[in-house]
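Hey,
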Amino acid sequence: MNDLISVVVSIYNDEKNLKDCIISIIGQTYRNLEIILVDDGSTDGSAKICDDLVLTSSKMKLVHRMHSGLGDSRNVGLDMATGKYVTFVNGSDRIKSDMIENLYKIMQNYPVDMSMCSCYTSGMAQSNTSTIITLSSEDAIRQLLIGKSIGNTVCGKLFKKSLFYSIKFSNDNADVLIRLIELSKKVGFVNISAYLCNNVETFSRTSLINRDIRTMKLYPNLDIYCQYDILKKLQNEFYEAFCNNIPLINSDNMYKMFMQIVNEKEEKISPFLSYKRKAHMYLIADDYNTYKRICPVLPELDVNN
């Protein structure tokens, strides 16, 4: 089979990387594509690049719209998509030439509703393991919470378009990937770094914590992984605020939540933490005010790890 795949490209002021992004999609080894460019009200040269490139390929569709955010631009692309499958690319990013073909093969050869590869950022170690694994919904959510292989983005993934009949994006929708996984019978994953992120998507701390609380209620077996993820998010917030002299909103409740997790789950969570994260955790727990003062001179905390 050679099913049509829709590639939704969300674009906002991506002039620097946009041409490379679109060329990386046009050059895919999988040829039966429709490429939907959604220009979300760019104010740089992105619109002109889109106008020029759309003339070079019959595979491309283009819409210019008022700026309303990444979530809305993806919804517009989904409404235009006619493929059986859909994948998402941000206009600042690039994909390797065989990414879509490899993800499509997983969809064809395994009983899965979505397939994934690894995303990476410039300078990050890349993976190139060709072993394909299939995961239950619960196992895939566990991997997402641990954050070692599955990133919380719809990029670098191929979906049956039918999954989106009941799901829409918002501009701070941290749980959309979990809801897509929940709708999937199985998920296929190959640990090949095939999606280059130049700008990593961010979500508010509140939406991420709400996602974890919702997941805990639905999947009691994942309780410890959700609490690990909450602790890590709070730890990141403390670290970034204290290092950059940024005021913390609702810091008292944040610290109460942090200490409750440490007091109740420290023994179970500790094995997931790196040496640096453990050190930061114990320093925060021992004396919050002292940690606040010395945080900028402590070993750097990799907030993405």
